[in-house]
Each structure stands twice: as structure tokens, then as C-alpha cells.
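Q: What would this chain look like folded?
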Amino acid sequence: MGVAMTTFSPRQFLRERNAVLVHFSTVMSRNPDLLFPNDLAGAMGLADVPLSFSTISPGDTNPWGGGRGGAEGAVGLLVDIGPETVIHSVSSSDSGSSVAGSLGGPATAQNCAASIDQRETSNEWHVSNYVPKGLFVLPPIFVRQRHSILGLDEPILAEAEISLAQAIDAFPALPVFSANARTFLQYDRPSGEWRAVGYDMLIPQ
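A: My prediction, written as C-alpha cells:
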């Protein structure tokens, strides 16, 4: 009798590692027109276009928060892996991904584990046809915006800190999630309070 082969599931892998996929609004985008919140609003409706994602677990921090790092930005789109999702590549660091491809490797069990275990400042999963699930924030919240400077004819692009209200008011229909050092969190808009939640509240079984 042969031994049945088990198909590797990146979605189950992330669940077991207590990690979620987040596409962050980043101040390092090469496209000067991709500014918050329009960049994330556009990402919600994309099909067949791969974007860069970070794997985020409790305890991860953004580039402005010190700590162990892990997040490419401060506010992003939390997504699930659905039947049509394609994971083009995974990497433990910046894989230089674009619509043309990526320097990362295929989403095998070994490569997915290495993308977290050998993660540098942040890792990168190159993913298309993802399923948006909510907004994810990691304070302090910095985004790239246009700023008018006295004496200059054209506004410049610069990172700026915004409040939680400014970040989430741009997406009133989305649930809002975050994480502290111990657990994931969900924001209750009416009360303005955060509450600890399990993985299933972010990514249902």
C-alpha cells in the first residue's frame, strides 16, 4: 500500500505559525502616485496583479516602532488566501518583486518556514487574487503623502504621522485589526476600545 502524500497548504501554515498576510501602504513605493489611502483602496479591487505582503504575528513592529520589526509599513490591507489566490514567491527579505516577477522562491513548506524563521527587517510574499478581510494597523502610523512647502511650486512626497482616526476613517466598512506583544487585537469603532481576539476573528476557518 502506498503512503498518501499531504499537499502543503500555505494558508494552514500561516494559521499554525499565528501569522497573517498584510499588504502595507509603504513610504518606499516606487510609484509617486500610490499614496495613502488611495493605494490601499486600489489594492482592495485588484485581480491578477501580484502585490507584496508581510507575514505579521503578535510582537512584530513597524519601521518607526523599534522592536523586532517584521512589518513593511504601519497601515495595510489584511487578506486571506482563497481558492483563486496565487502565491508567486516567498522570501525572508525584500525580493524586489514587481509585476514582472520576484527573486523569491516558490511557496514550498521549506521556503515558507524560512521566510519567517530567517526573516530580516521584513519578509515578502508576492501574492495575487487575495481575499481582503480588513484593515491592519501597527502604531505609530506613518504614511506617505504630498506636502506643500513654502517657496516650492510643487508639493513634495514625505512620510508623516497620522492618527488612528485618520487611518481608519478612510475605510469605514472594514474591520480594524492590530497586534500587541501577546495577541491579535480588534478595534471596536463605537467604543473606541481594542479587544484581544483569536486568529479565527481575523481569518475564519
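The chain has a mean pLDDT of 90.
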